[in-house]
Amino acid sequence: MPPNLHRLHNLNRYTIQNVTTEHITKAFEDRLFTHSDQVWVLNYDIPLFIKRKLRREVTIDKYFEFNSLSDLQRYLKQGESAT
Questions:
Q1: Strands (E), 1-83
Q2: What is the pTM of this model?
Q3: Most CB atoms closer than 10 Å: which of 4, 9, 17, 27?
Q4: How distant is the alpha carbon of residue 14 from its chain centre?
Q5: How far does the chain reach from its first CA to its final CA, in angstroms?
Q6: pLDDT higher than 80, residue 81
């Protein structure tokens, strides 16, 4: 993937790739979501038609939606405390 498609972040055991809506088409073409361990969606930041497409492509046990960045951060902290 081109370096401008995503920024990598390391949070202990997670490698997070941020994909903006402007780069979502390329991510689908590269099958990024089907090759990911989990897909986290911020509900406020993604159009409904993209969420529907993600739900079709990603298995349900890998797909997580969050209503706020705080909710996602709580989820990450819970995972960190489990290790």
A1: 8-11, 14-17, 39-42, 63-66
A2: 0.71
A3: 27
A4: 11
A5: 30
A6: no
